[in-house]
Amino acid sequence: LILRNRQPLDLETPVTALDRWLTPNDQFFVRSHLGIPAVGPTPWVVEVAGQVDRPLNLSLDALKGFAPAAVTAVLQCAGNGRGNFLPRVPGLPWDRGAVGQAEWTGARLSDVLARAGLKTGSAHVQVLGADGPPSPKTPIYLRSIPLEKALHPDTLLATTMNGEPIPVFHGGPVRLIVPGWTGNHWMKWVRTLTVSAEEAPGTYQQSGYRMPRTPAPPDAVLKASDLVPLTYMNVKSLITWPAEGARLTGPRQEVRGVAWTGEGHVTKVEVAVGVEREPTWRPATLLGAPRPWSWRQWRFTWDAPAPGRTLLRARATDSLGETQPEVTPWNRSGYLWNGIDRVTIEVG
Amino acid sequence: MNPMTNPRRPGLRPLTLALASVLTLLVTGLIATASPRDLAQPPGNDDPEEREFRRKTAERSVRDNCLICHTDELITSQRLTSKQWKAEVEKMVGWGSPLPKEEQEPVIDFLSSEYPADAAPARTARMTYAEALALERAVPDPKPSAGDPARGASAYASNCANCHGADGQGAELGPNLVEKPVLYRSRDYEAVVRQGRGRMPAFAPLINEAAEADMLAWLRARRYHPPLPAPK
Fold first, then answer.
1. pLDDT-flagged residues of chain A (< 70)
2. pLDDT over 90 (residue B4)
3. Angle value at C-alpha A322, between A317 and A323, nearest 5 degrees
4. At a CB cut-off of 8 Å and minimum separation 6, what does B176 contact?
5. pTM (2 decimals)?
6. How is the beta sheet containing A308-318 ordered, strand by strand?
7. Is B205 exposed, middle or buried (0-12, 13-18, 19+ CB in 10 A)?
8. Is the CB of A4 less than 8 angstroms away from the CB of B179?
9. Rounded-to-10 torsion of CA A205, A70, A36, A127
10. What percent of chain B is modeled with pLDDT above 70?
11. How many helices (H) and strands (E) does chain B have?
12. How far is A27 from chain B (nearest CA, A)?
């Protein structure tokens, strides 16, 4: 794994490890806002409070008592690819690997909220994890999701990841799964759910994880009303094989990758071989069938490559008609980079 | 053998350097004041030794005030303009960094020149999942703390609360300890308490093993339960 920061721990997945359907837990990227809490010494309890008829304190066993639900979903950090933005922006300079796909199982958040009983006027679910800030002046990592997304049957309070209890690095024992939405919503180490009429107050909901409604240059002065919260991911593809800088031999070459989007599904992946400014885009073969919230693996074969260094490019299009751009419009926090993926290789 | 790298004299080098730097500053300062010609320009800005001294001082400010809460990769991986560095430093001070006001400008200058927007991206290290686990994970202690939390409360109040806050959730100089993995890694906990860490002094002469265990029992019983920010 690529070490981005030791403490709080941030690790990036090398993209060749994403060359498969599910990303193994020990290869999955790790992002921690405020540091990893101690998990295990005391029994875990998830508290459901706020605008509910029956506040709940749920043990892990109680969570397992709800109807089991499973979803295979892509988890991507909102800042994946931040290192590509120019002018440069502050924040972890993730390259390509702050993304992965896992199968998550647990209780539907909607079932948990139904047991608690929502009062009229409820509109958001505020979520807090066990990761306390280093200083009382540091904002707490409190986030909320609107009730509509909270009640979606695929929004889970997950307790397993790829068939094992969610590892502590990945937010275990309980993580919120918000399929299609950026990773900042996928709260780790979930402790408290507060049903409210309001979005979460505080820095991480009210000013963090927001983007201008329309792209704005670096010197633009933006009002709060010009910014909207991130929700769905945008369409994106990754070349997971060959690796950057790989040396290839043989007459027939295969390029492989994955492609995903937030809302809808991937309808097309195209690959270009060569360094031309306006390359010829040719369709890749999409494997399997589209599945909600999952990435689509793809494959592209080409013959008799000319010797020397060359460039591979991939771009995906989704069912909303969005296609990856050459370069993602700049934003000051470096969110949602989805520029055409590029890998330089050597044909021998 | 180079005396500066003589392993039999550990710890001497930084001290000698620091003293030498202080002397250099005093001397250059005196010369600058004594020479009327130098009044026309900022004192010592172009002097390499002075520059090096300023660099070292700023580096120490960063170490003492930023690395309390996070490691240095978070800094060294950034490529920012001085305007962006200023905004980051001010944000961090707002978030609880104890960086004194008078050290902010030198730190911003230092960061802007060491990690400027136009520099090549930082090289990254690799770490396996197993190595990360060994570094971070809270493994439940095989032997539960034998300490007495009630006695620990008063030992904590007299020894730790000043920096780590009365409730253990952090204050000016000491970070939050509540529900942190270090409380479940006995050897790390003991090492920090006895030997100190960063700006934290060694408590070995002041705290015996019983008090150490009592404080641990008290700290382990704390829970992170923050007051929620007021709605807008």
1. 304
2. no
3. 50
4. A132, A133, A134, A135, A136, B164, B165, B168, B169, B170, B224
5. 0.90
6. A247-248, A341-347, A308-318, A266-273, A282-283
7. exposed
8. no
9. 30
10. 75
11. 10, 1
12. 7
- The one-letter amino acid code at B139 reads V
Q: Give the tokens for residue A181.
A: 């939405």
Chain A neighbors of B129, CB-CB under 8 A: 1, 11, 26-27, 169
CA distance A310 to A9: 35
| A100 neighbourhood in chain B, CB within 8 Å | none
- Nearest residue to B215 via CA among B165, B163, B168: B168
Of B70, B77, B125, the CB nearest to A7: B70
Closest-CA distance of chain A to residue B220, Å: 9
**Per residue in A85-135, pLDDT tens?**
999 999 999 999 999 999 999 999 999 999 999 999 999 999 999 999 999
Query: Do the Cβ atoms of A132 and B129 come within 8 Å?
Result: no
Query: Cβ B74–A92 below 8 Å, yes or no?
Result: yes
Provide the token pair at A263: 């809302």
pLDDT for res B172? 87
Q: Is residue B188 helix, strand or coil?
A: helix
Q: Identify the band that residue B139 occupies on the pLDDT scale cut at 50, 70 and 90.
A: low
The DSSP-derived string for A121-143 is: T--EEEEEES---SSTTSPP-EE
The CA distance from B172 to the nearest CA of chain A, in Å, is 8
> Which tokens belong to B118?
């136009």
CB contact (8 A) between residue A36 and residue B138: yes
pLDDT of residue B46: 73
3-state helix, strand, coil in chain B (%, to 5): 55, 5, 40
- Per-residue exposure over A120-158, b if at least 16 CB sit within 10 Å of its own CB, e if not: eebbbbbbbbbbbbbbbebbbbbbbbebebbbbebbbbb
Look at residue B29 in the predicted model and tell me its pLDDT.
Answer: 38
Q: How many other C-beta atoms are found inside a 10 Å radius of the C-beta of residue A217?
A: 10
- Report residue B231's pLDDT band, with 50, 70 and 90 as the boundaries: low
Q: Are B31 and B50 in contact (CB under 8 A)?
A: no
Judge whether residue B120 has pLDDT over 80.
Answer: yes
Is pLDDT above 50 for B31?
A: no
Output the CA angle A257-A263-A264, nearest 5 degrees.
70
Across the interface, which of A9, A90, A134 has its CB nearest the CB of B176? Answer: A134
Under DSSP, the state recorded for A217 is -
Q: Do B180 and A90 touch (CB under 8 A)?
A: no
Cα–Cα nearest to B78, from A69, A87, A68, A90 = A90
Q: What is the mean pLDDT of chain B?
A: 82
Distance, in angstroms, between B30 CA and closest chain A CA? 40
DSSP run (H or E) holding A269: strand A266-273
Alpha carbon separation from B32 to A232, B22, B29, B50, B51 (Å, rounded)? 61, 15, 5, 12, 15
**Structure tokens given for B154:** 């008063």
Instruction: Read off the pLDDT of residues B140-185 as tens digits, 9 standing for 90 and up.
Output: 666 677 899 999 999 999 999 999 999 999 998 999 999 999 998 8
The total of other beta-carbon atoms located within 10 Å of residue A43's CB is: 9
State the CB neighbour count (10 A cutoff) for residue A78.
24
